Inverse folding.
């Protein structure tokens, strides 16, 4: 429905490698991967899908205020997430749960946020440089670009040392491409030739508005106007996502400037748990994308390479174990003290916040005394 | 107090506020290589008000960034630079151009320390030339400080003198929190004493700048000179007026105001900004709450009108002058 002649696909929906002049540029990235890493791709996609279902259930059962599903976008996220090196910095939007998991984020931090216990609150330095979620659409694109400008001033790329050269990977969606901040990020990135990769997950829907309302041209063509090279990939092909991101990050780390990837994928579920996609889209479209599911094609690929039942059974067990663990830990979550509301509004001392915190403590204490 | 130091020191210079800020920026950049300046036309031109003049030549294009013309981009990339360990100082060319960056300031910069639960500081300064009296076109004479003083996570300050400007810009840059630094542009070219050897009382301290006994006047930025002028006129007519330079708009340092009102019993708050839901409103409400039994008259506000900033030929009617302040003083004394 939205694939174009330019769409790079390394793995067909049937799970066979696509070998032609276009893919010849990307397949060497795949050839470098060992079987263990190729199996990691599958493991992460399956586990996160199971986690996603569990979190959705928890929301329906009143345990979470909201859930943001990633169903259908696993390949775009897993492939790109694995393409980043440890020293790279990743600025997500708010749906890239598996990228965080790949980088070392405990997915419970996402659960805590959507249960109403935090606004994120993880420490990027402890989560593989996976930065916080940003809910104002597209705002993070500028933070990523500023971070990459800092890398440039620090000489953190282009040295030829693969252990040190770093880049920024920033995620956003098709809706975000209409935001001024995203265009401004393109402008700053091109102007300063920052080491960064813009990773657009075109999942075709900005809540209820189709991508056609955001753009009359394929989105991968837009960066050309900003002077940023771009590529469009089949975002439901984890190998294409990995290879295109690896190559783009390599360009960025080498000092060749920013790159842009449009990953064509599909949000199989709702925008969030508060949404009802049956009100605005046709089942034909959903069927089209279901036939291009990221996991089933990759499972076929791995089986063709000799992966055995024991592997798939092991992955299924890990997925069930994580789901059970998340459920148990979610239900066991407590609340947070009032001090969490007042802490870290400012870094340095602030008399107003301190006075209000003290007032609330005295007010609360007054009920305890009255109840005696 | 710096006033004493200025009088007693030997290093006193007569500088404009623009030059004082320039020297403050230079000192901060010299002291800390992580301090960067960002903005439109701030490099080779030195800024439309020349506040950054010479700094591009001294520190180079990686420390003084002539950015693309995009305020949200400036603030948003400054946030990313802060994450990387830099201390960006962003210049918004005129206050009326700040709104394209409003989301990045209020939804992002102001909240990111909170969102990070303290693991990441955001030491970003937003320099904002503001206020009227320069006869300029639309969007070049406004006073938007209440929007930012209202926003948790930001600090907002405004110097009234070159000496304060020199020291407060350095304190703002040293702060680990985001600081909105409002520069009264009509005061850019007024000279005043600057003592580069004697730091002030801290950027969040308000300060009595003229002692008096009958009425207290409070204001910030360019309004302080108007208040001093009004106090001088009133003094000649036999009324003793105390003037307080607010200096900090968030947080507001109430102790000097309370102490003054306990003495005078009368308070007039003056500002160029529209009065509705303004910094002056907040001061009036707080003094009414905290000094009710000291007050001999209602707290009165003298403000710009609740209209858009008018075409420049009308700004003399819009902006409070000494006569408008004295009219309020007379009303306060009539109780």
């Amino acid at each position: 429905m939205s694939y174009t002649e330019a769409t790079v696909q390394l793995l067909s929906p049937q799970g066979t490698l696509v070998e032609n002049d276009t893919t010849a540029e990307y397949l060497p990235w795949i050839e470098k991967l060992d079987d263990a890493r190729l199996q990691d791709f599958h493991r992460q996609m399956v586990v996160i899908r199971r986690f996603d279902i569990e979190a959705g259930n928890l929301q329906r059962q009143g345990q979470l205020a909201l859930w943001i599903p990633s169903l259908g976008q696993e390949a775009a996220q897993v492939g790109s997430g694995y393409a980043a090196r440890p020293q790279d910095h990743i600025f997500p939007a708010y749906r890239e749960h598996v990228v965080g998991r790949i980088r070392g984020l405990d997915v419970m931090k996402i659960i805590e946020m959507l249960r109403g216990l935090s606004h994120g609150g993880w420490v990027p330095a402890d989560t593989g440089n996976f930065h916080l979620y940003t809910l104002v659409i597209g705002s993070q694109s500028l933070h990523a670009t500023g971070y990459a400008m800092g890398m440039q001033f620090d000489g953190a790329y282009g040295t030829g040392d693969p252990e040190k050269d770093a880049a920024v990977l920033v995620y956003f969606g098709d809706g975000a491409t209409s935001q001024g901040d995203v265009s401004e990020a393109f402008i700053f990135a091109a102007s300063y030739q920052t080491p960064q990769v813009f990773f657009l997950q075109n999942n075709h829907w900005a809540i209820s508005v189709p991508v056609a309302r955001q753009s009359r041209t394929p989105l991968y063509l837009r960066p050309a106007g900003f002077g940023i090279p771009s590529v469009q990939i089949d975002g439901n092909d984890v190998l294409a996502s990995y290879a295109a991101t690896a190559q783009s990050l390599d360009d960025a780390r080498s000092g060749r400037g920013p790159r842009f990837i449009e990953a064509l994928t599909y949000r199989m579920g709702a925008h969030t748990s508060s949404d009802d996609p049956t009100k605005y889209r046709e089942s034909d479209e959903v069927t089209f994308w279901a036939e291009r599911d990221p996991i089933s094609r990759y499972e076929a690929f791995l089986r063709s390479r000799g992966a055995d039942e024991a592997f798939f059974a092991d992955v299924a067990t890990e997925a069930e174990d994580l789901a059970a663990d998340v459920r148990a830990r979610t239900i066991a979550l407590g609340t947070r003290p009032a001090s969490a509301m007042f802490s870290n509004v400012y870094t340095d001392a602030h008399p107003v916040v301190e006075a209000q915190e003290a007032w609330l403590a005295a007010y609360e204490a007054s009920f305890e005394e009255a109840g005696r | 107090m710096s006033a004493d130091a200025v009088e007693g020191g030997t290093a006193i210079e007569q500088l404009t506020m623009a030059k004082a800020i320039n020297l403050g920026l230079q000192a901060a950049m010299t002291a800390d290589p992580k301090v960067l300046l960002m903005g439109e036309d701030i490099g080779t031109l030195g800024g439309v008000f020349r506040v950054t003049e010479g700094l591009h030549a001294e520190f180079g294009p990686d420390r003084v960034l002539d950015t693309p013309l995009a305020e949200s981009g400036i603030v948003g990339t400054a946030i990313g630079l802060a994450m990387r360990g830099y201390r960006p100082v962003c210049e918004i060319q005129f206050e009326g151009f700040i709104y394209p960056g409003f989301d990045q300031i209020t939804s992002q910069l102001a909240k990111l320390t909170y969102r990070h639960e303290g693991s990441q500081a955001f030491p970003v300064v937003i320099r904002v030339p503001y206020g009227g009296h320069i006869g300029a076109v639309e969007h070049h004479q406004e006073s938007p400080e209440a929007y930012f003083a209202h926003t948790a996570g930001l600090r907002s300050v405004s110097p009234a003198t070159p000496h304060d400007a020199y020291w407060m810009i350095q304190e703002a840059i040293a702060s680990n929190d985001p600081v909105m630094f409002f520069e009264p542009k009509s005061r850019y070219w007024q000279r005043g004493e600057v003592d580069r050897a004697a730091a002030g009382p801290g950027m969040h301290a308000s300060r009595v700048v003229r002692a008096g006994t009958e009425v207290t006047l409070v204001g910030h930025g360019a309004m302080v000179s108007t208040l001093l002028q009004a106090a001088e006129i009133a003094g000649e007519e036999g009324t003793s007026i105390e003037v307080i330079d607010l200096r900090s708009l968030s947080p507001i340092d109430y102790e000097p105001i309370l102490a003054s009102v306990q003495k005078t019993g009368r308070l007039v708050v003056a500002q160029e900004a529209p009065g509705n839901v303004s910094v002056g409103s907040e001061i009036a409400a707080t003094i009414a709450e905290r000094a009710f039994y000291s007050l001999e008259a209602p707290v009165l506000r003298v403000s710009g009108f609740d209209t858009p900033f008018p075409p420049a030929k009308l700004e003399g009617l819009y902006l409070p002058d000494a006569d408008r302040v004295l009219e309020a003083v007379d009303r306060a004394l009539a109780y």
In short: Chain A is about 45% helix and 10% strand. Chain A has two domains: 23-336, 340-370. The longest helix of chain A spans residues 35-60.
